[in-house]
Amino acid sequence: MDDGASRNDKQPATGASAPRPGKERRRWSRQPNSQQNDNPPLPPALTPLIFSTEAFPPREQFDAWQALNAPLADLTLPDGMTAEQGFSARQIAWNLGGMLVVQQKASAHSYHRSATKLRSSLVDHWVVIFRRAGKSWTEVGGRVAESQPGTVEIHSLGHAFRGRMLESQSLTLYLPRDLFADSTAILDADNNRILSRNLAGLLVSHVDSVEARLSEFSKEDLPGVVNATRDMVLACVASTEERVAAASKHGAVAPMERARRFIRNNLQTATITPDLLCRELGISRTHLYQLFEPSGGVVHYIQKQRLLAAHAALSDSSDRRLIAEIADSFGFASAADFSRAFSREFGYSPRQARSAPAPSRLMKEGAQDTDGLPSFERWLRTLGS
Questions:
Q1: FRET label pair with 202: which of 49, 208, 210, 299, CA 20 to 30 Å apart?
Q2: What is the separation, in whole angstroms, between the first and last Cα of the chain?
Q3: Distance (Å, rounded) from C-alpha 91 to C-alpha 366?
């Protein structure tokens, strides 16, 4: 190589076009940042539902806590304790539409979600509990899972369970089963599991970030927050070969999930019958009844799903149909039959469901809405609808 050429390569260019020392040549014109400031931030979308037993006399505090948790489980005090001694508990719930975030602190108690509760309840969500203080022991199918600070618990409200907890503080996510429709086998394999160490740490970091912004999220933020949380849960529970292998053994779950999807997609068809489901799924009536026995039977399950869909339609301010038209669209023989079934299931009438303001504007201390129904229960029943 020519030495002169080498030296010239190292010399700065001369002439008017040479860049001045200390100056950076800009290849693109600078874009003004004013565009971001032109759009004001969207208003926060969430108003929390706050419940505290301090609002009640000591002898009524545990009963109030029981009533709040009635859709989930039956509660009892530890041996040697009585209701007259009082019961300290506080809960703050946030409804993101497709997910509930519940901050909770409560005294020691026991809980039991029985087969009877399971059959009568509309709630079959997934529950992810982030234990921050205290301990709990939960038994499902003879296996006990112990939770302590720093761990993450995964439970299904579609299964019976029992357990007890010491005085505890936690954050809980309620996630509708349909949110995991394509991953049911993986989660069913992880029912009543405890995540710890790195997997728990990843999930805790994400949820801590969500919690810190609950009062700031706009309506447009919420679907992204719910989907990101769903993806994080799946990434953590399905990140070991052992759990993926366990999920592959749960083939019996597949017919149930196919049945759920078929029912959900045909709620406006009046002729969903056990025989139709058997033909669609390719299973016997005995197998079908076994699948739906924990849910109170296949006919009961179909009716509950119709009522949930009708509730969502009534709560939709853009749906201008008459109540009778909504009832007819979901397979009810008459508006009167629909009204009776709806009131029996939700504790308030279709007309009250339609006229009630948005849940976020109903919240007040004591956890009651304008219909007298605990709003936390309404949130649980209609989550994801």
A1: 49
A2: 75
A3: 10
Residues forming beta bridges with residue 100, ordered by sequence position: 95, 174
pTM: 0.71
pLDDT at position 2 is 47
pLDDT band at 177 (very low <50, low <70, confident <90, very high): confident
- Do 253-382 and 49-248 fall under one CATH topology? no
Buried b (16+ CB within 10 A) or exposed e, 125-145: bbbbbbbeebbbebebeeeeb
Helix, strand, or coil (residue 39): coil
Tokens of 46: 């969430």
Q: Look up residue 374 and give its DSSP letter.
A: B
Q: How many residues does the chain have?
A: 385
The CA distance from 215 to 223, in Å, is: 15
Distance of alpha carbon 152 from its chain centroid, rounded?
A: 15
In this structure, what is the dihedral angle of CA atoms 158, 164, 168, 174, given to the nearest 10 degrees? 0
Lowest mean pLDDT among 55-64, 67-76, 214-223, 252-261: 252-261
Q: Pick the closest to residue 294 from 102, 103, 115 (CA basis).
A: 115
Phi first, then psi, for residue 16 (nearest 5°) are -65, -25
Retrieve residue 164's tokens.
Answer: 């007890």
**Distance, CA of 325 to CA of 155 (rounded, Å):** 38
**Cβ–Cβ < 8 Å for 314, 384:** no
Instruction: Supply the pLDDT for residue 185.
Output: 72
- Paired strand residues for 145: 138
pLDDT (0 to 100) of residue 363: 33
Q: Are 227 and 99 in contact (CB under 8 A)?
A: no
d(Cα 20, Cα 179) in Å, to the nearest integer?
59
Residue corresponding to tokens 């299931």: 345
CATH architecture, domain defined by 49-248: Sandwich (2.60)
- Sorted by where each begins, the domain ranges of the chain are 49-248, 253-382
Complete DSSP assignment for 145-210? EEE-TT-EEEEETTS-EEEEE-SEEEEEEEE-GGGGTTSHHHHHHTTTEEE-HHHHHHHHHHHHHH
90 vs 126: CA distance, rounded Å: 22
